[in-house]
Amino acid sequence: MLPKALSSEKYYVRAAAVEALGSMGPAAKEAVPALIDMLEIKEEDIRHKSMQALGNIGPDAKAVVPALLAAFKADIGTEADAAAADLLLVPHAQDYYRAAEAISKIAPGSPEHQEILADLIKYLSSGNTRVQAAAAATLGNMGLSAKAAVPALIKAANSDDYDVEKYAVIALGEMLPVAKEALPALITAVSKGDVFISGRAADALGELGADAKEAVPALIDQVGGSQFGPRHSATRALGRIGSRAAAAVPALTGGLNDKLLRTTAAEALCGIGPAAKDAVPVLIRMLKSPPPERDMTGRELRTIKEPSDTSYAAAALGCIGPEAKAAVPALIGALSYSDFYDRRNSAIALGKIGPDAREAVPALIKALSDKSRPVRASAAEALGRIGPDAKAAIPALQTALKDKEPVRSSAELALKSIDVENTAK
After folding, report:
1. Do 242 and 274 touch, CB atoms closer than 8 A?
2. Residue 385 CA to chain centroid, in angstroms?
3. What letter does residue 157 receive in the DSSP assignment?
4. What is the residue-wise DSSP string for 365-425?
5. Of 104, 111, 17, nearest to 61 (Cα)?
6. What tens digit of pLDDT does each residue of 232-273 get?
7. Contact residues for 130 (Cβ-Cβ < 8 A; gap 6+)
8. What whole-number distance in Å separates Cα of residue 91 and Cα of residue 135?
């Protein structure tokens, strides 16, 4: 039915059919001949979507590879022709870009793929910056299948031309974590403080995780920078690097005082974990400033898109664990906040602090009757993590065994952790 729709005289029918086939992936393999025919039509958007659909079908669409190579060659042409093409400034709107993308999915490593890769690497050394930018953008879109281009992309990332540098940095980010040799170039890009380039480089470094440890100083510098985009991306990246970014704790703690950055900073401190213990006093202060009251149950819960700032503080304290025991009184107080996220995250944090949170047992017992089921389940789990010091909660937990899931199973596990002797019997 869908392949037949591709031959409709109506534009919107053909467009919808290509879109649908593209979402089907390999299941659309029977449509390959019809999609190949679509590469000859004049409507550019349908032609590009046909290439994307063929790429999504994968190896079963190998019959199209010669046509895709021809489309790539015809569109990007010789270097001189490419230099004259105004639309090289919008690479994703070009046939060569979509053809290269499709071949990288259908036949990576094939002679056709290698030919395209060689051409693009050659264009990266072109004397025309628009050609270089187009090549870098296309290589980035090809992802790891273009990893042979990493040395040329590293060189391009140091270009004086903004677009060349931008697309090269994006492409190098797509090559991680395989192309770890790109790390110095990405660190340099972060250090430039550009709203777009530094942000994308920081995002790529964050994806690398703990292996991006040597980027920590450059990322710390950006946390204190003047541009919000790079600050936000650098903060998030430091959290993803984890405990190896412990040197960033002072900068991230300062970020907790910034209304625009505080939730991202709290998440980053959570990612660093116990090594972020020096941030505990500021996180406690943040937790003690609850948002305006709002009912967070039932249908109204689904209307709230974001947790409150205080809930991020509670979550970070939980990630720090026993080193955050000074926060226990504040977390007890937050169990009575009106915000569902505050109550749930505070209960979880008390559980992660463990036996040092024993003074929270009465408040957690009360939380077993909370109107929110996730809060009740988190309270039960917290009591179990506190262990034998939570014996006073045994009657309430036994009652919770009659509750719905996940409260029931959390209560059962908590009872086993608290009443070890009777459980053993």
Report:
1. no
2. 30
3. T
4. HHHTT-SSHHHHHHHHHHHHHHGGGGGGGHHHHHHHTTSPTTHHHHHHHHHHHH-HHHHH-
5. 104
6. 999 999 999 999 999 999 999 999 999 899 999 999 999 999
7. 82, 83, 85, 88, 89, 163
8. 8
